[in-house]
Amino acid sequence: MKKFYLASFITIFVLIVAMLLVGCGSQNTNVNANLSDSRYGVFDAKNEQISATFIYGERENPYQPDGISNSNVNFGILTIVFPEKQTESEFEFTLKTDDKTYTGKVEKSPFTDEYLADIGSQITANSPIELTLKLPDGETKLSLEKRSEDWQINFDKALKIGENALKDEISDMSKNGRIEYYLKIISNNKTSFGTYFWAFTAISENGEKHTVVFSPSSDIILVKN
User: Fold this and answer.
1) Each residue's pLDDT tens digit, 80-118
2) Is the pLDDT of residue 2 over 50?
3) How far apart, in whole angstroms, are the C-alpha atoms of residue 92 and residue 135?
4) What is the pLDDT of residue 190?
5) How far apart are the first and last CA of the chain?
6) Residues 99 and 67: beta-carbon distance below 8 Å
7) Whole-angstrom Cα distance, residue 26 to residue 23?
8) 10 Å Cβ neighbour count for 63?
9) DSSP character at residue 152
10) Do 37 and 31 form a contact (C-beta atoms < 8 A)?
């Protein structure tokens, strides 16, 4: 009888451990619950003086590529690119939507010639965003149009494409710890202004990282690493 109870206890214990392990694996592979950078849409415009983009979404705070997804905050990143290198470290700007006005300064990136500002808010309306940028010789104005509204592959579709493209890698990574995920809108504003791509990334606790890149108009994977 004691052997029977001991065997039953061992069986139940093994089942509980197995269920916990399965639960951890499921949690690791739940992309929606572990998104650390979600970029939903983009506005842009350019003239002879500047090119400007505005990308909005949610991202974790603090922002750390460590495989662990923290609580998310809203963001809206304004990026300014000049055709020629500038000596100033910052420029004042104003962004106007239908019902709100945002003011601040774009500051030069330490890594590129871009000037950046995060207004800490999403602008999701389809109507244009009016930008005024103060330059040394006066102001320049742009009306930023929403480019992502008519994309064939929106954020939700892009998330599924990215997850499916990395399903084997995600399955292997989930065995060794937690995973966080990024879905970004990327571009090269200096050389290919107005051309955008989706980039889906999975990052594990142990530093393993995989990314796929594809167009907003096709599910064909252009880059995978």
Assistant:
1) 999 999 999 999 999 999 889 999 999 999 999 999 999
2) no
3) 8
4) 77
5) 57
6) no
7) 5
8) 13
9) S
10) no
Nearest-angstrom CA–CA distance, 177 and 52: 39
Tokens found for residue 222: 């252009």
Using the structure block, give the residue that is written with the tokens 């796929």.
212
Here the tokens at position 19 are 């269920």
Provide the token pair at 103: 């003011």
4-54, pLDDT tens digit by residue? 343 444 443 333 333 334 444 445 679 999 999 999 999 999 999 999 999
Cα–Cα dist 66/106, whole Å: 28
- How many residues are present in the chain? 225
Helix (H, G, I), strand (E, B) or coil at 68: coil
Does the pTM surpass 0.70? The reply is yes
* CA–CA dist 109, 63 (Å, integer): 17
Residue type, 47: N
Q: Which residues share a beta bridge with 96?
A: 101, 130
